[in-house]
Amino acid sequence: MEERDVTQRLEAAATLLERTLAWLEERQTALSGDVEKISATIDQSRREEELAQKLAAAESEIAELRASAASTLAAPQVPRKTVPATTAEMLAKHGIGDAPVDVRTLDAALAGLSLEQRIAVKSQLLRAGAIA
């Protein structure tokens, strides 16, 4: 009878060991699945951080470009610094060169022109910065 008890006890122990082994295998499968989920979550978090950094850089570049465009538009336009060739020739005949023109000398040089022509010449010189 002792042999029978020992055999039954060994069979019961073997059954328990098989159940324990099956439980351990199931647990390991579940744990490895959790690890995969965690690593996937970490990878997704890193990707989101990279995208957020790229978005911030793009937004900052857009802001800089808008600021530079606004400052360019707000800056006063540089007036034209050249005088038409015909005006320059006419002034050169009266001894007036590229230097800033004295208004009295200019009026004397333009005396032979009509009022409209004098206004046109003076406005060209004003745009070119030749008179103040």
Folded structure, characterized:
- This protein has 132 residues and is mainly alpha-helical.
- It has two domains: 1-75; 85-128, no CATH class.
- The chain is built from four helices and no strands.
- The protein has helices at residues 2-74, 85-93, 103-109, 115-128.
- The chain is rod-shaped.
- The mean pLDDT is 79.
The class by helix and strand makeup works out as: mainly alpha
Largest sheet: none
Alpha-carbon Rg, integer: 47 Å
The H-and-E topology, N to C, reads as HHHH
What global shape is seen?
rod-shaped
Write the layout of secondary structure elements.
Layout: H1 2-74, H2 85-93, H3 103-109, H4 115-128
Compact description:
By secondary structure, this protein is mostly helical.
Can you tag this structure with a few keywords?
132 residues; 4 helices
